[in-house]
Amino acid sequence: MFVPLTCPASRRRIHVPIHKHQGSLERRIAMRLQGTPARMPFGFPAFMLPLLGSNPPSEPDDPELNRQIRGERVRMLFAPTVPVSIVSALVCVALAVAISDQTGRTWAVAWAALCVLASMVRLLHLRAYRRSSQRDHPMWLQSLTLMCALHGCCWGLIGVMMPIEDMVTSSVLASTLVGACAVGTFTLQAHLRPNLATNLPTLVPASLVLLSRQDTYGFFGGLGLLSLMALMLFESRRAERRITELLWLRFTTDRIARERTHALVLAQRHSAVKDQFLATMSHEMRTPLHGILGLARLLLDRLPERPGVLHESRHQVELIERAGEHLLHIINDVLDFSRIEAGKLQIQHASFDLRSLLDEIIELQRVTAQEKGLRLLADVRLPQPCWVSGDASRLRQMLHNLLGNAIKFTELGEIRVRVTTEPQGGGGTVVFHVQDTGVGIPGDQLGFIFDAFHQVDGSFVRRHKGTGLGLTITREIARAMGGDVDCESEVGRGSVFTLRVPLHPMAAPSQAAIPTAPAFAASVAASAGPTTSGAVPHFSGRVLLVEDNPVNALVAEANLARLGLDVTRAEDGAQALSMLQHLERPFDLVLMDLQMPELDGMEATRRLRSWENDQRLDPIPVVALTANALSTDRARCLSAGMDDHLPKPFRVEELMAVLQRHLPPSAPGVVA
Fold first, then answer.
1. Are 19 and 206 in contact (CB under 8 A)?
2. I want to staple 504 with a disulfide (CB 3.0 to 4.6 A). Which of 135, 427, 444, 550 is the partner?
């Protein structure tokens, strides 16, 4: 954006580009400049106030900015020294030759020699300036003013030697002096003080000599030179104002650009630290949570449903599992929200049966609704099957959020789900209406319900618990998919959430192309409640479990053993690599943790793939078994040579889906 500020040099409003993160700098500049009193800058002589006007430029109360402006102005004053000194010396010599007969050869030669000497002194002064390491020091302006005064006095001596009776010679000298002053005014316009030091001693002597004629020509010539000098000084002052304004704007903008660059680097660094923090905290929370949930499910599967103490124990284990599932849901919401904030929300596109997905979600939520004594009614106006292209897992997440909210905020009555389609150019939009008979939302709160961490009842002791991220995530996912979600509500009568998502119809795939274990089985399993005993596939083969955490290793070994697999454990990547590098190939599958001492899972897999390639062996399937659940983690695992990714904590259904993809099942068995 552009912020209007008043430049101290000209009192004019100018617009300075300010980045949205640079508000503090803009405030500092405004505070410095808007209230700065006008005063004579850089040592202006007070007697020039009537000549220069009533509003002299003022300098901002910023030492660093003053130093930069002062240094640049001095650099601009020194820049033309070489050509001006050379031309001045040549003109002096030529003029001395031209007027030597009228002024006397001795005086003319002496004057020319003095002017040449002054030019040489200025060149030596320039050399000293260029060698200095403190070119912005105020002494350089003072010494330059002195050099200009010396040079001006040398030129002014020719006016004293002017033969006033010879009007031709006087006119030549006056014209030459005016030209010298014009050159000085142009080359020294960055600051008025050197200009004064040059023009005053150059023109005032000639003007006084002409006025001493006391005739019409003398008065006209003398007053003309003085008027011209005043005009040049006035224009020099205006030029100085413009230069000061430009320099102020230049250095202010440069500072803003530097601070903006610094802010951008700092923001990127903070974003990287935040991403690393979230990844680390996700891993550190998921690792013990996997052990808690895994052990709870093992106990739940093994505890019989008998009255008495065993029944109470089974109920307590169920509570442990539900609390762990709730904590896992919160962790997933926070990670999704962080992806959305970072602009890293990824939408996948694949064909899936929308009707089957809806039936599955509705049946799962119907169980939850029945536990509260609510009815869940569905009106799905879609064909069976209904193949579309889109992100099935994200759609599932949005619908679970909307239905879960409707059930949570409804105490009596029912929840209605209606699904229709709307035609759209080149495809179609599926519209999901979720209506409840719950408490409703006040009108003044409707505009905020999709804000992060917002709840209508935001008190500490609010009745309905939650992070307040569900609706925010739903809206952002819907918009990322090209749709949106809105809400209509009335207090005491309920709410209606309408989700619109573009889903393009697809031809039904062949039976062989339909996956046996969908990639979105994880979220289904997370909503399905406790694992119950029953018929499950029975696998055969040897699995190498690479896991350094003993609790998580215990859970994985127990689940794999229940599925009929022979399990061998390695505690780190180096031990696993030594077990795998045998030509007899003793293992059929590797479940590889990522973060381990000695050698992590990524590097162990890379070395395994390199060794297999050297030995010309078929690669053993390697599945990342890790608490790193970000989408980038899956991509890193695949790029390292792994075949699949199973995030912790996982349910036995998710483990079976992975085993089905990489191990051939044997005869079905029954899990005790």
1. no
2. 427
Residues 35-92 pLDDT 10s:
443 343 333 344 443 444 434 344 556 788 888 888 999 999 999 999 999 999 999 9
8 Å CB contact between 453 and 363: no
3-state secondary structure of 461: coil
Contact criterion met (CB below 8 Å) for 502 and 429: yes
Over residues 341-350, the mean pLDDT reads: 78
For CA atoms 591, 593, 598, 603, the dihedral sign is positive
Question: Are 626 and 645 spatial neighbours (Cβ–Cβ below 8 Å)?
Answer: yes
Provide the sign of the torsion angle of the four alpha carbons 255, 258, 260, 263, taken in this order: negative
| Strand 427-436, strand 414-424: pairing | antiparallel
Which CA distances in Å does 649 have to 13, 326, 410, 556, 562? 61, 12, 30, 10, 18
What count of other Cβ atoms lies within 10 Å of the Cβ of residue 116? 18
Residue 304 has pLDDT above 70, yes or no: yes
For all residues of the chain together, what is the average pLDDT? 81
Residue pair 44/52 in contact by the 8 Å Cβ criterion: yes
Q: Which of 634, 637, 597, 590 is nearest to 612 (CA)?
A: 590
Write out the two tokens for 233: 């000084």
How many CB atoms within 10 Å of residue 356?
15
φ, ψ of residue 534 to 5 degrees: the values are 165, -175
